[in-house]
Design a protein that fits this description.
With 315 residues, the protein is of the alpha+beta class. It contains eight helices and 16 strands.
Length: 315
């Protein structure tokens, strides 16, 4: 007799999930195995964080994330059954409240359902869900304290005329999965992806910055997703009087930078100590990156009142 398996046993404890307008227990948030998005990657999503503050949990840059979710949907051609930006905001806040989260990671998702399974999704309904769960430091506390180790992936970031790179679409992330899996199997924390022309694109799920002679260089957008955390870090640095100059970078420019770090909702601000077996700067978490991490977390937790407009309080 084969071992019994409970298909509802969660690897993630999401509690109650917003599922097409209702809050349901995680085990009841089910979809058909014939769901279009499962077969073709026709979904769009966001990664968002809510942080504990002295006024209760607050979602960081909620409206910007909700807008980007709808922008991704429009890029994929999703038209019918879409929630409004206000409905997305409200669903996210309701889901956090229903699970009594002091802080959490938030995953809203729009996807094509199971009405038909041809490549054309025109007959398929768009569904909407929001899940929340506890998620600590993305690459681990050690990677933050010592600096992460990266290796350039053999997988290039998809060109913009091949995949819609400005959409946070599920299908795009096969590229990220392959790159990250390759890096992990080689013993590294994360992958560095180049674009088709050989310029630095991003990590598997993070934007990149380099620092040289006190100037902050965000890696310029080519095929990169327009990062909300990236924008936050640029504005935090400018508020500190730092000179910011966007740059198209090749990977050898990263090798000779004073510091390199990566940013994203999950990664927040994570310093990089090594790329392709070469130490970056002192080969440790750099002081600029760590200062920007402090600035970012101060803004996200309400300690820096200059950026209070970035917070949406749950209660």
């Amino acid at each position: 007799m084969s071992e019994s398996h409970d298909p509802t046993a969660p690897g993630i404890d999401a509690g109650r999930i917003w599922f097409d307008g209702r809050l349901v227990p995680q085990e009841q948030a089910q979809v058909s195995v014939l769901t279009h998005a499962m077969h073709y990657g026709t979904s769009v999503f966001e990664g968002i964080r809510a942080y504990a503050t002295d006024r209760g949990p607050a979602v960081f840059r909620l409206r910007d994330h909700s807008r980007r979710l709808l922008e991704s949907a429009r890029i994929l051609g999703m038209r019918n059954d879409l929630p409004s930006v206000e409905e997305i905001d409200d669903a996210i806040l309701a889901t956090i409240r229903a699970n009594d989260r002091a802080s959490c990671y938030v995953r809203p998702l729009l996807w094509y359902g199971a009405e038909s399974l041809g490549v054309n999704p025109g007959r398929n309904r768009v569904h909407f869900m929001v899940a929340t769960w506890s998620w600590g430091t993305y690459l681990g506390d050690e990677a933050v304290a010592k600096g992460a180790r990266l290796i350039t992936s053999s997988w290039r970031r998809s060109p913009a005329d091949v995949m819609p790179t400005k959409a946070k679409a599920g299908g795009n992330y096969v590229n990220s999965v392959l790159a990250n899996q390759e890096a992990r199997e080689l013993g590294y924390d994360e992958a560095l992806l180049l674009d088709a022309q050989g310029f630095v694109a991003e990590g598997s799920g993070e934007n990149l910055f380099l620092v040289r002679d006190g100037v902050l260089y965000p890696v310029a957008h080519s095929v990169n997703l327009r990062g909300i955390t990236r924008d936050s870090v640029i504005r935090l640095a400018e508020a500190d009087g730092v000179t910011v100059r966007e740059s198209m970078a090749t990977r050898d420019e990263l090798y000779t930078a004073d510091e390199v770090f990566m940013v994203g909702t999950a990664a927040e601000v994570t310093p990089i100590a090594e790329i392709d077996r070469r130490p970056i700067g002192a080969g440790a978490a750099g002081p600029f990156a760590m200062r920007m991490r402090e600035r970012y977390l101060a803004a996200a937790t309400g300690e820096d009142e200059r950026f209070a407009a970035w917070l949406t309080f749950v209660s």
